[in-house]
Specification:
- The protein is α/β, with parallel strands linked by helices and about 325 residues long.
- It has two domains: about 1-200, DHBP synthase (Alpha-Beta Complex); about 225-310, Threonylcarbamoyl-AMP synthase, C-terminal domain (Rossmann fold).
- It is built from ten helices and 14 strands.
- The protein has helices at about 5-15, 35-45, 60-65, 70-80, 100, 115-125, 145-150, 190-195, 265-280, 300-310, and strands at about 20, 25-30, 55, 85-90, 105-110, 130, 155-160, 170-175, 180-185, 200, 225-230, 240-245, 255-260, 290.
- Strand 1 and strand 2 (about 25-30) form a beta hairpin.
- Helix 1 crosses helix 6 (about 115-125).
- The relative contact order is 0.15.
- It binds adenosine monophosphate and magnesium ion.
- Adenosine monophosphate binds next to strand 5, strand 8 and strand 9.
- Magnesium ion binds near residues 131, 132 and 140.
Length: about 325
């Protein structure tokens, strides 16, 4: 066991915060059973209100303690996807503090697929509540450097596990209704979930089911205004524009900077590159970012969801 993990685990046990890698994004973790420690997460992230957090556990046994029951369909899903980028929402056990679930009768749980995350959970012996390790609403961190740059002064320990292999947040499926409900598209593709458990109702606030733009909480957002659009028409003249695109563009002359997410057009590779590419563009002092939507399948759903939420206030 690495000395650093031991130190980090002790901080968790003592009610402190640790930033740690998962396969999706870096998390800012606290002992999920200690409401004071969890409150500190909201403080450090500057979240305006208490949102429910995902609780990270090491295995099925530890998940079982946090919930009242595991419906058969949920079991089937986690058997395939855990450890991995799938979160299930289930009726919570009374031991889970209200601050973790925003007083909902449900808890969101997952087993992350990253050795450092699993070591930290096992060594601390605690379930770890963790949102992404970034200030509220900003681009999610996919390297330890991203965390250091934004929260370094507020978080004592940042475990470095290199770049996240999946790169977008977990898929969230709720089992509170008769029919399973997709609450957030993410690293586990909806098609694979439906192949296993049948119909899943999609109830996300993103590209799947657009509301009026003003109603949506902006999230995953760069500081530079971002527009999500297929076309190059209507681009303002005389502005420095950055392009975020899946494959190499036919014509890159209108752009000061271009980020290609995957030259092969591979959506998994694109997801893994998404947040770091957004950050690089954001650091170039551009006037505007244009993002092309990607094919709406597999991890493409999660990519479009994040781009949509990063963009909705910035219609041309
Ligand atoms: P993040 O930690 O930033 O990946 O975001 C956590 C996501 O999980 C948010 O979108 C929450 O709304 C969702 N979530 C967490 N717990 C619950 C719950 N009990 N019911 C529904 N959604 C949840
Ligand atoms: Mg987040």
């Amino acid at each position: 066991m690495m000395l650093e993990i031991q130190k980090a685990a002790q901080i968790i046990q003592e009610g402190g915060l640790v930033a740690f890698p998962t396969e999706t994004v870096y998390g800012l973790g606290a002992d999920a059973l200690n409401p004071y420690a969890v409150a500190e997460i909201f403080e450090v992230k500057n979240r305006p209100q208490f949102d429910p957090l995902i609780v990270h556990v090491a295995d099925m046994r530890q998940a079982d303690i946090l919930v009242q029951k595991f419906p058969a369909l949920a079991l089937k899903l986690v058997e395939k996807f855990w450890p991995g980028p799938l979160t299930v929402v289930l009726p919570k056990s009374p031991m889970v503090p209200d601050i973790v679930t925003s007083s909902l009768p449900t808890v969101a749980v997952r087993v992350p697929n990253h050795p450092l995350a699993l070591d930290l959970i096992r060594e601390s012996g605690r379930p770890i509540a963790a949102p992404s390790a970034n200030p509220f609403g900003a681009v999610s961190p996919t390297t330890a450097g991203h965390v250091r740059n934004s929260l370094g002064s507020k978080v004592e320990v940042i475990l470095d596990g290199g770049p996240c292999s999946v790169g977008v947040e977990s898929t969230i499926v709720s089992f509170m209704d008769k029919e399973p409900v997709l609450l957030r598209p993410g690293g586990a593709p909806l098609e694979e979930i439906q192949a296993l458990i049948g119909q899943v109702r999609v109830q996300t606030t993103a590209a799947e089911k657009p509301l009026a733009p003003g109603q949506l909480p902006q999230h995953y957002a760069p500081r530079t205004p971002l527009v999500l659009d297929e076309s190059l028409e209507n681009l303002p003249e005389g502005k420095k524009i950055g392009l975020l695109t899946l494959r190499e563009p036919r014509d890159s002359t209108p752009f000061t900077a271009v980020e290609v997410l995957s030259y092969k057009g591979d959506l998994k590779e694109a997801a893994a590159n998404l947040f770091a590419a957004l950050r690089r563009l954001d650091e170039k002092g551009l006037d505007l970012l244009l993002a092309h939507p990607v094919p709406h399948e597999g991890l493409g759903r999660a990519i479009n969801d994040r781009l949509y939420k990063a963009s909705h206030k910035n219609q041309l």
